[in-house]
Write a structure and sequence with these properties.
about 90 residues; mainly beta; two-stranded antiparallel ribbon; about 0% helix
């Protein structure tokens, strides 16, 4: 995308729900959450949309947020389960 907001490109183009993108510190990769395999997982891809890799392969249906270590050496993901109030 250009600085003025023009030139948008759909990098994922999978038809799935994809959210919470996080750029790597060096700008070469994007981590993101997606349900493209039928459940929420964390993926990473190159900044041009190539090289998509599923990092979590978890069969549970969890929410997701994505972050990078400042060094860019590893990825971190936190899973957010839906809130369920305690039974009384």
């Amino acid at each position: 995308m250009n600085a003025d907001g023009t030139g948008l490109v759909d990098l994922t183009n999978s038809g799935a729900n994809e959210a919470f993108p996080a750029w790597s510190p060096d700008g070469s990769q994007i981590a993101f959450g997606s349900d493209r395999d039928g459940n929420d997982d964390v993926y990473v891809m190159n900044a041009d949309g190539t090289g998509v890799l599923n990092l979590t392969h978890n069969p549970a249906f969890d929410g997701y947020t994505v972050a990078w270590r400042p060094t860019g050496a590893a990825h971190a993901a936190s899973r957010l389960r839906p809130y369920r109030p305690a039974r009384r």
